[in-house]
C-alpha cells in the first residue's frame, strides 16, 4: 500500500513540475495558480481512488488468506483422522497377535507336559529292555558256551565274508552291465554319426605338375641364360623342376598355398605366351591375389557350412589355406568339415553343445596350414594359433589333444579324437603312394613272420587285415589266441597307420588216410 501511495506522489510531483514549467513559459502566474489548484484537486482525487483500491486489495488478500487457512485446517483434520484409523487397525492386529501367541504358548505348555510324561515312560521302558537284553545275552552265552566278545567276532567274520562275496558278485555284474551298455551306446552314437555323414567324397590332391602344350616351351620358360626360371623361383619361392618328362614341368615347395599360386601364375604365363621377368612378376601378383581370395572364400564357406559365424578373420584365412593341403591324399579342409559334422552329431546324441563340438572339429587341424613354417606337432601349433585369436580353453584343449600330444581331459577332446579317426580311416578317405603302400604291407608280413610257429602271412584288405597261417604241430588253439594278441601289440608299437589292423591267426589240422 505504501508503494502505491509513493507512486501516486511521484505522479503528482511530475504533473506539478510540468504545470510549473508551462506556467513559466507562458509567463502568467495567475494561470499557474489556477492550474496548480486544478492539479491539486486531481491529485487529491487520485489519492482517494488509490486508497479505495488499496483497501479493496487488502480485503481481498485477507479473504484469500482466511480461505487458505480453512483449507489447510480441513486437510490436517482429514490426515489426523486417517492416522487415527490406521493406529486403531494396528492396535487390533497387535491384540490379535498377542491372543494368537497366548494360545500357542498354552498349546506348547500342554505339549511339553505330554512329552515329559512320555519321556518318563520311555525311560522306564528302556530300563526294562536293557535288563531283558542283559538276561538274554547271559542266556545265549550259557547255551553257546561263547563269551560275548567271541560271539561278536564270529558274527562279524561271517557277515564280512558274506558281504565281500556278494559285493564282488555285484561289482562284476555291474561292470559287465555298464560295459555292455557303454559299448552299445558308443556303437549306436558312432554308427549314427557315420550313417548321417556317409557320402562319396573325392579328396582333392594338390597339383604339383603343370602340363605344357609342347616341349619347346621349356626353353622359353628357362629363358636366356636361365633368367626366366630364376626370376620365377625368386618371385614365387617355389622350385621349378624341368626334366625329361614330356610336356610336363614340376613345382616343388613345402608351402601348399605358395605352390598353388605358382601353378596358377605358370599356367597363365603359358596361356599368355609372353614369358619374361617383368611379365612373370605381374602374373605372379595377379595369381597371388586370386589365390588369397580363393583361400578366404574357402574358409568362409567352410565356416558357413558348419554353422560357425564368429571366427576371427585370421582363423578363417588359415582355415581356407587347408584347401590346398593334403594328408595321405586326403584334402585337409574337407577332412576338417567331416570331423566338424561328426563331432556335432555325436555331441547332440550325448546331450552336449553341438555348436562347440563342431567348432572344435572344424579347427582341429589348423596347424597343418602353417606346420611348414613353425616347428612342432601340428596339433600344438594349431592350439597355440587358436589360443592367440581368442578361442575358448575347451576348444584349444580339444585341438591340442586330438593326437595325444597332451592327455585329453574333457568329453569334447575325446569326441574330436574319435571323429578325426573316423574321418581318416573310412574307406577311400586317404591314399598312399605305391612305394609307401608296398612298404607297409611288407612290414606287416615281416612282423608276423618273425614269430615262431608262423608258416605264412598274407596282408589283405589294403593292409587292414593280416591273415597268419601257423603250423598246427607247433601252435595250439590257446597259443593261437596269445599269438594274435602279441602280433597286434607289436604292430601298434612299431607302425603308424590310419584306422586299425585286424590280425587273424588260422590254425588248420589235417588227418590223412590212405586206402590200398
Tally of strands? 8
Our measurement of the CA-to-CA distance between the termini, rounded to an integer number of angstroms, reads: 164 Å
Rg on CA atoms, Å: 53 Å
Large-scale geometry: flat
Low-confidence stretches: 195-207, 427-432
Structural class: mainly alpha
SSE pattern: HHHEHHEEHHHEEHHHHHHEEHE
What is the topology?
Blueprint (H helix, E strand, L loop, with lengths): L1 H25 L2 H116 L3 H50 L11 E3 L4 H7 L4 H10 L2 E3 L6 E5 L3 H17 L4 H29 L7 H9 L4 E2 L2 E2 H18 L4 H10 L14 H11 L4 H9 L9 H15 L8 H16 L4 E7 L4 E6 L6 H18 L7 E6 L9
Parallel strand pairs: 7-8
Antiparallel strand pairs: 1-3, 2-3, 4-5, 6-7
Helix pairs in contact: 1-2, 3-9, 5-7, 6-7, 7-8, 9-10, 9-13, 10-12, 10-13, 11-12, 12-13
Detailed description of the structure:
The structure is a single chain. The protein is mainly alpha-helical. It contains 15 helices and 8 strands. It has helices at about 1-25, 30-145, 150-195, 215-220, 225-235, 255-270, 275-305, 315-320, 330-350, 355-365, 380-390, 395-400, 410-425, 435-450, 475-495, and strands spanning about 210, 240, 250, 325, 330, 455-460, 465-470, 500-505. The strands form 3 sheets. The protein has a 3-stranded antiparallel β-sheet. It has a 3-stranded mixed β-sheet with strand order 6-7-8, covered by helices on one side. A hairpin with a 2-residue loop joins strand 4 and strand 5. Helix 1 (about 1-25) runs antiparallel to helix 2 and helix 9 packs across helix 13 (about 410-425). The chain starts with a helix and ends in a 9-residue tail after the last strand.
Amino acid at each position: 500500500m505504501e508503494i502505491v501511495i509513493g507512486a501516486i506522489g511521484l505522479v503528482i510531483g511530475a504533473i506539478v513540475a510540468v504545470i510549473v514549467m508551462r506556467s513559466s513559459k507562458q509567463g502568467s502566474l495567475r494561470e499557474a495558480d489556477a492550474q496548480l489548484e486544478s492539479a491539486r484537486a486531481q491529485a487529491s482525487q487520485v489519492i482517494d481512488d488509490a486508497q479505495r483500491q488499496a483497501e479493496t486489495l487488502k480485503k481481498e488478500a485477507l479473504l484469500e488468506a482466511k480461505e487458505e487457512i480453512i483449507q489447510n485446517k480441513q486437510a490436517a483434520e482429514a490426515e489426523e483422522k486417517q492416522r487415527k484409523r490406521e493406529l486403531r487397525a494396528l492396535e487390533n492386529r497387535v491384540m490379535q497377535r498377542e491372543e494368537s501367541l497366548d494360545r500357542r504358548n498354552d498349546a506348547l505348555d500342554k505339549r511339553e507336559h505330554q512329552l515329559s510324561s512320555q519321556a518318563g515312560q520311555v525311560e522306564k521302558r528302556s530300563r526294562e529292555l536293557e535288563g531283558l537284553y542283559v538276561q538274554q545275552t547271559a542266556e545265549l552265552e550259557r547255551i553257546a558256551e561263547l563269551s560275548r566278545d567271541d560271539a561278536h567276532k564270529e558274527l562279524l567274520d561271517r557277515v564280512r565274508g558274506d558281504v565281500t562275496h556278494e559285493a564282488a558278485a555285484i561289482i562284476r555284474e555291474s561292470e559287465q552291465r555298464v560295459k555292455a551298455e557303454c559299448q552299445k551306446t558308443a556303437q549306436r552314437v558312432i554308427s549314427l554319426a557315420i550313417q548321417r555323414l556317409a557320402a562319396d567324397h573325392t579328396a582333392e590332391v594338390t597339383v604339383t605338375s603343370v602340363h605344357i602344350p609342347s616341349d619347346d616351351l621349356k626353353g622359353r620358360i628357362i629363358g636366356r641364360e636361365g633368367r626366366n626360371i630364376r626370376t620365377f623361383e625368386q618371385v614365387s619361392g617355389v622350385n621349378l623342376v624341368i626334366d625329361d618328362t614330356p610336356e610336363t614341368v614340376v613345382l616343388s615347395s613345402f608351402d601348399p598355398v605358395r605352390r598353388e599360386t605358382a601353378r596358377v601364375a605358370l599356367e597363365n604365363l603359358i596361356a599368355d605366351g609372353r614369358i619374361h621377368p617383368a611379365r612373370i612378376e605381374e602374373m605372379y601378383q595377379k595369381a597371388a591375389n586370386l589365390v588369397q581370395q580363393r583361400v578366404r572364400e574357402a574358409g568362409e564357406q567352410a565356416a558357413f557350412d558348419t554353422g560357425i559365424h564368429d571366427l576371427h578373420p585370421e582363423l578363417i584365412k588359415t582355415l581356407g589355406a587347408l584347401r590346398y593341403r593334403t594328408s595321405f591324399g586326403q584334402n585337409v579342409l574337407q577332412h576338417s568339415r567331416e570331423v566338424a559334422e561328426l563331432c556335432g552329431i555325436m555331441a547332440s546324441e550325448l546331450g552336449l553343445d553341438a555348436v562347440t563340438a563342431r567348432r572344435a572339429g572344424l579347427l582341429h587341424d589348423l596347424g597343418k596350414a602353417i606346420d611348414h613354417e613353425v616347428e612342432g606337432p601340428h596339433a600344438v601349433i594349431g592350439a597355440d594359433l587358436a589360443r592367440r585369436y581368442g578361442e575358448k580353453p575347451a576348444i584349444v584343449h580339444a585341438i591340442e589333444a586330438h593326437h595325444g600330444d597332451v592327455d585329453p581331459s574333457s568329453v569334447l577332446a575325446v569326441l574330436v579324437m574319435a571323429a578325426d579317426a573316423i574321418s581318416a580311416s573310412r574307406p577311400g578317405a586317404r591314399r598312399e603312394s605305391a612305394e609307401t603302400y608296398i612298404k607297409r604291407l611288407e612290414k606287416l608280413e615281416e612282423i608276423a613272420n618273425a614269430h615262431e610257429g608262423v608258416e605264412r602271412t598274407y596282408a589283405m584288405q589294403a593292409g587292414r587285415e593280416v591273415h597268419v597261417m601257423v603250423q598246427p604241430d607247433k601252435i595250439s588253439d590257446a597259443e593261437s589266441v596269445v599269438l594274435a594278441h602279441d602280433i597286434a601289440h607289436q604292430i601298434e608299437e612299431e607302425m603308424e597307420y590310419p584306422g586299425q589292423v585286424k590280425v587273424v591267426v588260422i590254425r588248420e589240422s589235417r588227418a590223412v588216410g590212405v586206402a590200398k
